[in-house]
Amino acid sequence: MSNFLEFINQNVLVGDGAMGTYLFEKGISYESCLEELNLTKHELITGIHGEYLEAGSQLIETNTFGANYFRLYKHGLHEQVRAINLAGVQIARQAVIAAGQGFVAGSVGPTGMTEVFIKDKVDEVRSTFTEQIAALIDGGVDVIILETFIHPAEIKIALEALRRLSAVIPSICMITCGESMRFSSGEPVIGLFDELEKMGANVVGFNCVTGPRAAANILKQVPLHAGRKLAVYPNAGRPEFHDGRFHYETPPEYFAAIAKRFLEEGVSIVGGCCGTTPAHIRALRAGIGKQEPVHEKVFTEKKSIIEPLSASVQEEDETILDIIKKRTLIVTELDPPKTMNTGKFIDGAKALKEAGTDAVTLADNSLAILRISNLAMGVLTQQAGVMPMLHLACRDRNILGIQSELMGMSALGIHHVLALTGDPAKVGDHPSATSVYDVASVALIQMIKRLNEGFNHAGKDIKKPTRFTIGCAFNPNAKNIDSQVRKLEQKIAAGAQFAMTQPVFDPALVKITYEKTKHLGIPILVGVMPLIGYRNAEFLHNEVPGISIPEGIREQMKGKEGDAALPVSHALCTEIASEILSYFKGIYLITPLLRYEMTAELSRWVRAQE
Predict the structure, then answer these.
(1) Could you report the per-residue pLDDT of 267-281, keeping only the tens digit for each?
(2) Which of 177, 204, 328, 391 has its CA 20 to 30 A from that of 378?
(3) From residue 93, how far is each of 60, 68, 97 by CA, in Å?
(4) CA angle (454 as vertex; 453, 458 as ends), nearest 5
(5) Domains and CATH numbers, the chain
(6) Which residue from 298, 357, 285 is spatially nearest to 596, judged by alpha carbons?
């Protein structure tokens, strides 16, 4: 064939289809490292390339999508990055030579690391891409294809690594997004395309979108200026899961019929992603035939419209950030009950408000122990006339469930949230439960901030923005408080507006916490937790993560249980609270075991100090 760029300027090029899902269809397990097959089952990979070429593919991707250091490390293969990539190129090149036609594209996927890691470790990420891309270039690919990227920063790092290695080898940059044309960060795709082209991308486009119809709708939103080349590789629709495997049911004929519409939008390269097979590519090639790409089209920009809040909602409720400007803020934690007896909890919430508490905060199955949904109890708290603040942990819900919970909270008028990673399930009363952790606290804070801006994690417009006041946790009891401060700074940068601490039992630590955090510019609510007895103190100190009780305090509680412990506990709490109020404008009272009388008494004491 002629030069790759010359070819796509004059012809619509048909790519290949899926490698990963096709390997699974052929019996390879989900747990396998697919890229290792370049070394262990090269005949299988050669055969798949041959099937796609026979079906009409003109561009064959190497089986190297995940052949970078970070992904191979999970399989203990990180020292074989170069060998696996070189083998991938050799296999694809031999298949193309045997077919007598075709280009070889070196496939480079994302590292699989989080957006926070990518931004913090730019040099490491760039080095990882450099290692892989250098091997692909040395192997003799015709083009490098960067595909399935979901973080704008990461694909820019990858393209930069490519251009440092070669200014001339062609590049295709494909991202994955929904029809909203935004990333989870809120960044618009079109702006990224412009940046990538300035950085040296020869072709931009999309892959791994949910199906051909969604791809067609996405392409309508992409302007086609002079010189822009577009590529699209959609999935074969949405998968079903049965018999232990994912199955894609979109028929090849339908896939090819919709794909014809891609050409009207200016696509120069079209192939398939997850679920597509040689049959899809055969139908695609037959439907497209030999056509020249469209070089211009009528483009109407789709405007994102966020509906204004209704008049009643625009009159916003008072938030804790408003309260703390006027008086000492008191937030008191009251855990949802472990049983269906909710009466004591509601009585406690009312008693705390009467005692001067501004908001009652409800944990989210703290210590991974089953309790009634804090959303349900938050609604009951609200109905009792008390402002609820819900903890939200990443342990029990995936990204979909977290956002659904948040949108439900907003719809119910609950607008204060404390974003937490959460204790792992294995430490609680259901150790066989699965911990999800799709995201951790920093990413959760970013997600909530995006909802406040009117977009969900996939970048879709939610029409009415939420208006959460976002809190986060901070542990001054940690051995390395400076490390905790750095984490807190990351949370603030992500969008946290206030912080609440683990309970503090050492008055000296209060001043240290103030000195370490006074530059941050957000309210810090330092925790105070009454002790209900000596056994309770020993348990908290020795078995609960994040809590440290000085030996002197435990000695004061020694031998005291029940009513005998109450005056000692109250005296210790007021000593700590007095120190907190000398440095901070708010305080966080933590109710032990629904013993709300203890924190109500403390709440009255705090109000009396004003």
Answers:
(1) 999 999 999 999 999
(2) 328
(3) 9, 20, 6
(4) 105
(5) 12-288 (3.20.20.330), 311-608 (3.20.20.220)
(6) 357
